[in-house]
Amino acid sequence: MSTPPLASGPEGPDALRPLLDTVLDALAEGTAARGGPLPAGGPGQVAQRLRTALGDPLPHHGSPDALHTLVRALAEGAADPADPLCAAHLHCPPLAVATAADLAASALNPSLDSWDQAPAASELEALVAQALAHLVYGTPDTPDTPGASGARGTQDIRADALVTTGGTESNQLALLLAREKHHGVQLVCGAGAHHSLHRAAWLLGLPEPVVVPAPAGILDPAALDSALTDLRGPLLVAATAGTTDAGLIDPLPDIADLCATHGARLHIDAAYGGGLLFSDRHRTRLDGLAHADTVTLDLHKLGWQPVAAGLLAVRDPADLTPLAHRADYLNADDDTEAGHPDLLGRSLRTTRRPDILKIAVTLKTLGRHGIGHLVDQVCAHAHELADLIAAHPGLELYDHPAISTVLFRPRGATDDTVAAVRRTLLDQGRAVLGRATLDGRRWLKATLLNPHTRPGDLATLLKLVEGHTPR
To answer: Is 233 buried (19+), middle (13-18) or exposed (0-12) by CB count in 10 A?
Structure first.
């Protein structure tokens, strides 16, 4: 048996070319076989088709057809975020250029735990992460940064950012940094805050979080003021810029002012809404963001990156000191003193792939204006969908969207009916809608992240809901 070729090195590109043709053909065939946003048949049939394609997952002898067979099976059984009728989650269709860059990252396979494994990738990560931190916090030549003046004055241009696997890891890191700076810190968050914050508090052994009422889905400043007045000890307030359920944005300037008044640390989870920073039209929605001590960003949402593409922006890089760690084989003292970068303090993970490459390629290819245009497009699509729902006598709109999430339900339907309509569309492979519970009622959720969506696609989505609602 011959030794399989490698993906990198002088012969790597020639070894990859025919394999890429195989992958692309299999993707096309699987997509055509699926014929919609989701495979039909529900979990049981999808699982059986996959089992049939896989066969023995650890055979004694391999098969040269495995790449085509399994890629085709995965494509046929995928929920395809590039289909306009796949609109349930913050699950974006990745840009082709970002996906191509991700291939290069996989082929070169740098590991960002020591400089000698990632000489160029480590420098690329440092430069791009800092640029994105400055997008949040501003620089002397960007006075229009959202929230760059007010409660906490001018921003510190030393701001930095760490690359993470997404919002969950970023939120966990934010709580860890707060705990290390303020021992015994207690989390205070709104009722609509992401579940990862509560999980992080549990994981880090912090006191039970204080949950502040969030009428209409956003944190109530008066209730927060009352809580901060009554509570004792160091406090970390977590606000949200783009809730998972409805894409709502907490009143960030008011919250920042309250944190300054009460001496509380502020974290803003902008995993969803952070993408508005790229849009000249919408970035003022994030006024107050720059007053946060830490900010979660997630570019595999409103950034059109393949998973994973998260960041944690930090206003004061000194807050990152607790992450410092020494392992002689990775960051020996004499190597660091000789000028080799110390990378272990950039993450709690050791082995890390260069997720920054796809981000950097996207930023350089599209520029801030190009990404902002994509943001503007999906926000406009959400408003178009909301207008269609508001004009439809058989549908009820929750509210006009704050970002690109639209909640609606068949008028007069019970919560059980709403859930059943969604499952029916899923099992038939016709449409992928999410669900959310607000104001004590269940809603269908459309999260629009596909800039190629057309008005006709939106109308089709509503016709499918209407046609599958029992009357």
So the answer is: exposed
Over residues 286-299, the mean pLDDT reads 98
Alpha carbon distances (Å) from 444 to 398, 462, 468: 10, 11, 13
Question: Whole domain around residue 40: which residue ranges?
Answer: 12-78
121 within 8 A of 91, measured Cβ to Cβ = no
| Strand positions, DSSP E, 368-419 | 395-397, 405-410
Measured distance CA(188)–CA(74) in Å, rounded:
42
CB 171 within 8 A of CB 194: yes
Q: Exposed, middle or buried, 399 (CB in 10 Å: 0-12/13-18/19+)?
A: middle
Task: Verify that 163 and 44 share a domain, yes or no.
Answer: no
Residues 127 and 163 sit within 8 Å (Cβ to Cβ): no
Pairing of strands 395-397, 405-410: antiparallel
Do 139 and 254 belong together in one domain? yes
Q: For residue range 215-270, what is the model confidence (pLDDT) as tens digits?
A: 889 999 999 999 999 999 999 999 999 999 999 999 999 999 999 999 999 999 99
211 with 321, same domain: the answer is yes
DSSP one-letter code for 403: S
Mean pLDDT over 422-451 rounds to 97
Q: Do residues 323 and 379 both lie within one domain?
A: no
- CA 36-452-163 angle, to 5 degrees, is 95
Domain identity same for 117 and 262: yes
